[in-house]
Amino acid sequence: MDYPSVINQFNVYNAGNRLIGLTGEVSLPEINSKTTTVNGAGILGDIEEPVIGQMESMKITIPFLTITKGYFELCDQLNAVSLTLRGGIQTMDTETAAAKMQQMRVVVRGKMASFTPGKVKGAEQMGSSVTLELLYFMVELEGEKMVEVDKLNSIFAVNGKDMLAPIRNMC
Description:
By secondary structure, the protein is mainly beta. The protein has helices spanning about 70-75, 165-170; strands spanning about 1-15, 15-20, 35-40, 45-55, 60-65, 80-95, 100-115, 130-140, 145-150, 155-160, 160. Helix content is about 5%, strand content about 55%.
C-alpha cells in the first residue's frame, strides 16, 4: 500500500503555457453544495438537504511573487481562463518504505473575479494575486478522474460516478 506524504513538485499552465512567477502554494477551491431546508410532518425539526449537483460559487486564488505578463493574462474578463496544475504526489510503500510518485492533475476554468496587484517595496515580493470564479473544476490522479464539476454542462461526478446522469436524462 502506498502512503501519500507530500506534493513533491508542481507547475501551473495557462492554455498549455507554464506560468512563472507563482508562489509555492495554490489553495484549491472549496466545493459546497447548495442546500434547502426540509421540514414537515414526521420530521423532527429541520434538515439541511444538499441539492445534488447544485453548487455554491467556487473560487480559486492564484498568488504571484510579482506581477508578470502571465499575471495579466488571467485578468481578461472577456475570455475564460483555463489553468492546469500538474504535480507529483510523493508516496511511501508501507511494506518496503520505498518512495514512489503518483501523477496529479487539477484543471480549472473560470473568469477573473478580482485581482490584487500587491505592493511595491524594495527587496520584497509584491504579494500579487488573481481570483477566478470557477465554472469547471476537475481533479485527476494517475489519469483517473476523482471529481469533476462542470456548471455549464450539468456534470457532477465523484470517483467515476456521474451524480447528474439520471436528471440530465429527464430534462
